Amino acid sequence: MLYLFFASDESENVKKMKSCSADRRLSVISHHLLLPINDDEAAIIISPSPTSSSSSDPLFANTPRAPEDPILGVTVAYNKDPTPVKLNLGVGAYRTEEGKPLVLNVVRKAEQLLVNDRSRVKEYLPIVGLADFTKLSAKLILGADSPAILGNLVTTVQCLSGTGSLRVGAEFLARHYYQRTIYIPNPTWGNHTKIFTLAGLTVKTYRYYDPVTRGLNIKGLLEDLGSAPSGAIVLLHACAHNPTGVDPTLEQWEQIRRLIRSKTMLPFFDSAYQGFASGSLDEDARSVRLFVADGGECFIAQSYAKNMGLYGERVGSLSIVCRTADVASRVESQLKLVIRPMYSNPPIHGASIVSTILKDRNLYQEWTLELKAMADRIITMRKQLFDALRARETPGDWSHIIKQIGMFTFTGLNTKQVAFMTREYHIYMTSDGRISMAGLSSRTVPHLADAIHAAVTSVV
């Protein structure tokens, strides 16, 4: 056995230090610096690391710089702008009339209850998450009287908000579903393509938005899904389509459902805005419940970022509706195998807030009132912007602003007009003309209306 020293005279120093009681700590440290090695390992230990370099160049000097995220990059640019009149309409988060982030009163009450409960601990959650949370989340989206709930046909796992729920579902499908192609609407949330592609699925699109009418292209939608292969996965926005704010009518949803079921396709709902669109939790879940009622399989990704304002808590769930309870149990067992090496188990705090609110009748009622107030304020902002543009006689038909629903409006502005508004009016939005209505206030509507009017009349 050999010992490799870090300094040639270290053993001599150790002898000297032993005589000095004040420096005994250094003696202990020196012994820990000795590396016991076998003769045949010596060369390996002292060899340069495989990642070391003889040159002065950093290891990752040639790593290309990634572009800013097209959505989050808007906020980055906004923060760099020193102008006091700047306006950020890119962020997908609710703001008060004063332009401030909002923590719901019911959330503060729930958190206080959790803090006051001395029996609570910070132990790991099970892989599938907090039991109360998953049970109540399934009931919220499917309805307490859903046949899927009553028949134990649904398995629900807690995930990292909507993004994590989509990714877990995509990973499961890539491993266990015979079709590897998912059809997503054009346009859709920018992260959808990345999530499904990185999970191993092939992403294709179907027509959704009609830029002429600034509404739903139901004809193109049905044609594209009609020509898709049987069994393909279809991503659907449960309500408040992002980025357009255009939702199918109930009759159009029924047309979509019949087509999807006739081709044995698999619907995958992204429900990020339940209750936040219309102000009604039940109304915003009608599309999902329509599909679940026919007894077929269905995937639903839920997020509590918007409707409870829990953006930073990353609270969400994935529910998979199956045809039998046995299959649901098997699916859950495989979801555990997806989650365990991905993030092991989910965080406890946000899920505890949600379950505290959902299982308490008074807190739940207070939440629905606050939720409706947020939805109503957004609807009011739509009306004010529409009225302001009409008062300015801005060219074009702007009725789509009050016809669309939810947090976002697809204005119809082109990239040049968006750039003009950012440059001249310091208004920040995504380049496709999407604006967050939740970022507007009665004070800022006139400024936005002036900018839109100037852009439309001076920039082609």
Automatic annotation (TrEMBL):
<dbReference type="GO" id="GO:0005739">
    <property type="term" value="C:mitochondrion"/>
</dbReference>
<dbReference type="GO" id="GO:0004069">
    <property type="term" value="F:L-aspartate:2-oxoglutarate aminotransferase activity"/>
</dbReference>
<dbReference type="InterPro" id="IPR015422">
    <property type="entry name" value="PyrdxlP-dep_Trfase_small"/>
</dbReference>
<comment type="similarity">
    <text>Belongs to the class-I pyridoxal-phosphate-dependent aminotransferase family.</text>
</comment>
<keyword id="KW-0808">Transferase</keyword>
<comment type="subunit">
    <text>Homodimer.</text>
</comment>
<dbReference type="InterPro" id="IPR004838">
    <property type="entry name" value="NHTrfase_class1_PyrdxlP-BS"/>
</dbReference>
<keyword id="KW-0032">Aminotransferase</keyword>
<dbReference type="Pfam" id="PF00155">
    <property type="entry name" value="Aminotran_1_2"/>
</dbReference>
<dbReference type="InterPro" id="IPR000796">
    <property type="entry name" value="Asp_trans"/>
</dbReference>
<feature type="domain" description="Aminotransferase class I/classII large">
    <location>
        <begin position="86"/>
        <end position="452"/>
    </location>
</feature>
<dbReference type="GO" id="GO:0030170">
    <property type="term" value="F:pyridoxal phosphate binding"/>
</dbReference>
<dbReference type="InterPro" id="IPR015424">
    <property type="entry name" value="PyrdxlP-dep_Trfase"/>
</dbReference>
<dbReference type="InterPro" id="IPR015421">
    <property type="entry name" value="PyrdxlP-dep_Trfase_major"/>
</dbReference>
<dbReference type="InterPro" id="IPR004839">
    <property type="entry name" value="Aminotransferase_I/II_large"/>
</dbReference>
<dbReference type="GO" id="GO:0006520">
    <property type="term" value="P:amino acid metabolic process"/>
</dbReference>
<keyword id="KW-0663">Pyridoxal phosphate</keyword>
<protein>
    <recommendedName>
        <fullName>Aspartate aminotransferase</fullName>
        <ecNumber>2.6.1.1</ecNumber>
    </recommendedName>
</protein>
